[in-house]
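Posting for a labmate who doesn't have an account.
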Amino acid sequence: MSRYYIGLMSGTSLDGVDAVLVEFDGNTPCCIAAHTEPYPTTLRNALLELCRPDATVKKMMELDVQLGRLYAQQIQQLLANTGVSPQQIEAIGTHGQTIHHRPDTRYPSTLQIGDP
C-alpha cells in the first residue's frame, strides 16, 4: 500500500518555498510532484526586515501566520495538481523560514517561523 508524505523547505535566500510530494511503496520513495513557489514581494520584504535585530515580536507573530497560510496554500495546490486527497497524506514536514541564525555566539541558536 502506498504512503504519501509532503515536505516543505525554504532557505535564507528568501526566494520561495519548495514543496515535494513523495510516495512510498514499501521502502522505495518516488517523487510524485515538486514545485517552487516564489515569495510574494511584500512578504519577502517583510521577512527581510524581520531578520534585523530591531524586529518586533508582534511582527514575527504576524509573519508566522502569513507563512503558515502560504504553506497551506502550496500544499493544497500540490494535492489539487496530483489528485491526491488530504486523507492520503501520512505526514507533512517543514523546516520553517529561518529568521535568525546565530551558531557562533555565546548561546548558539536558530529561530524559524511558519507554523501551519
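Reply:
Got it, the C-alpha cells are right above this. The mean pLDDT is 92.
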